[in-house]
Each structure stands twice: as structure tokens, then as C-alpha cells.
Write a structure and sequence with these properties.
45% of the residues lie in helices and 8% in strands. It is of the alpha+beta class. The protein has one domain. The N and C termini lie far apart (50 Å).
Length: 173
């Protein structure tokens, strides 16, 4: 027997999103982004929506409709270079979603997942264009859910030299 609740819970909550271009201006002019979407860059970015989440973390792409999900805390307090590179990384996932690719394929570990490698390749290429050192790129690659060994494997796949010192982590400030 189900317990009787003397309350009403409306179960039609909607996710609130806003236009990407209202919060991330100028990305349509970034060559790294143009390489992702080509001649469709302006159209894709103008139609892309972004959801700001009140949870810790970084950013990701919804596997439901392909919109960008950004931690408000990360956007407000994170390193601006990391945020910039993450936007490029996540825009690759937006394109992958549009192409029907499986973004979260559990057959692979995170650092071996083809969609992640492709997204990181774009971010690393842009990091190099910006003049970031391999050590700084490794700091960007490192997240809380990756062991140092996993970062090493990812860095090797991306042709990024690991520094002798290890144990660094990227943080939200």
C-alpha cells in the first residue's frame, strides 16, 4: 500500500536555458571554433543554448538536446584560460551530438573515449596557439576524476609532455 501524501508536487519542471551568444561573445570569430563548425559556425552558435547550474564542476553537453551546461561557480571563479579552452572542448561535443555520436560511451574509460580525445585535441591545439607550455596544458587536462596515471595516458595520446613534477590539479578558484 502506498502512503498517502497530503501535498501536491508539480512534476513539469523545465530546464532554463539562455542563448550561448549572450554569455560567450566573439567565439564565432575564433579560428578554433570555425574549424569545428566551418561555414555553419554563426548559425550553430546563435542557436546554441546554455544552462547555468548551481553545482560545482566545470561544463558539459546535455545528452538530451545538446545544449551546454555550465557550472555558475566555475564560470564566476575558474581560471579564464581554462574556461576558454573548456568552451572549445565542449563545442566539439556539441558538434559530436549534432552528428549523433555517443558522448558518454561506457565501453571506454574517460581518457580513451574517442569523443573526449577529439575534443581535447581541439583544446590542446588552441592552447599551443596561445603559447601555453606543456606543463600548463597538463594542468588544464587534470581534473578531480582523473588519476595522475590517466593524465599521463591522455597527455601521451595528445602529444603533450608531462612535467617531472606531478600531483597538480586544476581547480575552481
Amino acid at each position: 500500500m502506498e502512503p498517502v501524501l497530503n501535498v501536491e508536487i508539480s512534476r513539469n519542471a523545465k530546464v532554463w536555458t539562455e542563448p550561448f551568444t549572450e554569455h560567450f561573445k566573439g567565439f564565432e570569430k575564433v579560428e578554433a571554433v570555425r574549424r569545428i563548425f566551418g561555414e555553419k559556425t554563426e548559425k550553430v552558435l546563435s542557436e546554441l543554448r546554455v544552462e547555468f547550474a548551481g553545482r560545482r564542476g566545470y561544463m558539459g553537453v546535455s545528452d538530451t538536446d545538446g545544449h551546454l551546461i555550465v557550472s555558475a561557480d566555475y564560470l564566476n571563479c575558474g581560471d579564464i584560460i581554462d574556461i576558454y579552452l573548456d568552451v572549445i572542448h565542449e563545442l566539439v561535443h556539441v558538434k559530436q551530438f549534432m552528428e549523433g555520436k555517443e558522448l558518454f560511451d561506457d565501453k571506454y574509460s574517460y581518457v580513451e573515449r574517442p569523443t573526449e580525445i577529439e575534443a581535447y585535441q581541439h583544446a590542446v591545439e588552441e592552447a599551443r596557439r596561445l603559447g601555453l607550455s606543456d606543463e600548463r596544458i597538463c594542468e588544464y587536462l587534470k581534473t578531480e576524476w582523473m588519476s595522475n596515471n590517466e593524465v599521463k595516458r591522455l597527455a601521451k595520446t595528445l602529444n603533450v609532455k608531462m612535467p617531472a613534477r606531478q600531483g597538480f590539479r586544476r581547480h575552481v578558484q
